[in-house]
Amino acid sequence: MPTPDLSFLGSALLGERDGVPVVGSLVAGAGTGAEVEMPARISPATGAPLFVGGDTTDAPVEAAVAAARETFQRGAWGRSTGRDRARVLARAAQLLEERSEEMVALLLAETGKPVREARGEVAATVNAFEYFSGLARDINGRTLRDVGEDVFAFTLREPAGVAGLIVPFNFPLGILGQKLPPALAAGCTVVMKPSPLTPLTALATAGLLYEAGLEPGALSVVVAEGLAGATMVSHPHTDVISFTGSTTTGRHIAAGAGSNRLKRVALEAGGKTPVVVTRNADLDQTVEGLLFSSFFNQGQVCVAGSRILADSAIADELTERLAARSAEIRLGDPADEATEMGPLISQQHFDGVLAAIDKATSEGADLVAGGTAAGIDGTTAAPFLRPTVLSAGDDDNHAVREEFFGPVTTVQRFHDLGEVVERANAQQFGLAASVWTQDVQEALDLTFALNTGTVWVNGSTDAFPEVPLGGRRDSGYGAEFGREGMEFFTENKTVQMRRGTRPAWYGA
Fold first, then answer.
1. Which among 36, 42, 347, 403 has most CB atoms closer than 10 A?
2. Is the domain defined by 6-269+475-492 classed in CATH 3.40.605.10?
3. Is the distance from CB of 420 to CB of 395 less than 8 angstroms?
4. Along the 508 residues of the chain, how does pLDDT read in single tens digits?
């Protein structure tokens, strides 16, 4: 795989050390070195060092938050109009599209996802910037004519202030697109912390926004480990927090956000998507759809179809066909157009997924396909895992209860729709569900019965900026995308105006 050109990072590229690029945080547009440096990031695709830099401390956070607060209170961005913000976001979308191949190269290097998936992620992010550039000019409240005698009222939506954004490793650009454009469209200033494994696309996007006309103080990118995120969340001068990641970390985020002052938090946490396949499903269409939902992005997707509940009448055939097709998926060099699956994000994560498979089988799950490492010609990188299909009868099995975040799906049987709804709703997660059937009434009944934030019918994993995405229970709360996603970054203000003279209350 070719080495990406990191000069695209601008001032965030601080130099080289022993031939390896040194990367820093961007604080109000200025590159900032680490106080205590993280270990070198090893590319999951090549096994070679990709960059050094980033901080194990929270040192960059204070300056980043101070710049964001100053810009919000006294800078041009804090006084910007909807048109001002729309023009910046629209121009950023144009620049991102023009530089798409460079962004794809960064995604390949830092995530190892196949090139066709990387291209799709860049295109989806362009789409998000375009959508929220339009919404920036349409932030509105409500008017109530006669709330009382001679009194009318209206509401205003105002920018919330300084937004802290925490972006995970699995879609470092795509999930950035769910958070950053709506925050800027609303008029917030932003401190963003990408995963320390995948900061390159975030740094590059910040550079494009500066080029598009964004005031540098309105956006800082902190390249650092988890301590920096905790400090940003609890900082008294951050006003709202948007987080995507694990449920365990989400609980810490929710607690930390209220430690110094109360603030609103949007959490998009873990998931274990129940995929309900009825006897009325088109199996040809369903098998191909389940391959995508289970193994897209190496299964590192919060809404991956990792728990398939199949009607007992078709469960055996579905399992056999899914296993056979999964064995045909081509693993390889992410830059190769023929590659259909790349490596997991790191060797540590690979080891964790493999251990989870072992735990599931030790608890009685059957290994139907995959479950082993794959050697790839031309690379010493090792975190390549063959697509894995399990079969489990017990709802308490590890593979049924827990999110593995890898290319692993588990097939279970059910006997009637009432049973499958009860079992699907019994889990602690509530991010999304998927229903496969050609019976419209069946599709509607299951859609209304499943207790999740999103339900796909004869589809899965798709997200569009026009519609909100959010979870329930241990999958979090709040919404990303849609008008709701932008309104999270605003505060409501109620204004009441009296048209007449209020009669005296005392001494009348």
1. 403
2. yes
3. no
4. 677 888 888 899 999 999 899 999 999 999 999 889 899 999 998 888 999 998 999 999 999 999 999 999 999 999 999 999 999 999 999 999 999 999 999 999 999 999 999 999 999 999 999 999 999 999 998 998 888 888 889 999 999 999 999 999 999 999 999 999 999 999 999 999 999 999 999 999 999 999 999 999 999 999 998 889 999 999 999 999 999 998 999 999 999 998 888 999 999 988 889 999 999 999 999 999 999 999 999 999 999 999 999 999 999 999 999 999 999 999 999 999 999 999 999 999 999 999 999 999 999 999 999 999 998 887 777 799 999 999 999 999 999 999 999 999 999 999 999 999 999 999 999 899 999 999 999 999 999 999 999 999 999 888 899 998 888 898 888 889 999 999 999 999 999 998 888 888 898 6
Contacts 24+ apart (CB under 8 A), 150-156: 150/498, 150/499, 150/500, 151/496, 151/497, 151/498, 151/499, 152/496, 152/497, 152/499, 153/494, 153/495, 153/496, 153/497, 154/494, 154/495, 155/492, 155/493, 155/494, 155/495, 156/492, 156/493, 156/495
| Spans of all domains in the chain | 6-269+475-492, 274-457
Q: CA nearest 136: which of 92, 81, 185?
A: 185
Given 130, 268, 403, 480, which residue is catalytic? 268
Q: Do 6-269+475-492 and 274-457 show the same overall fold?
A: no
pTM as predicted = 0.94
Catalytic residue among 188, 302, 403, 480: 302
Active-site residue flag, 215: no
Which CATH fold topology does 274-457 show?
Aldehyde Dehydrogenase; Chain A, domain 2 (3.40.309)
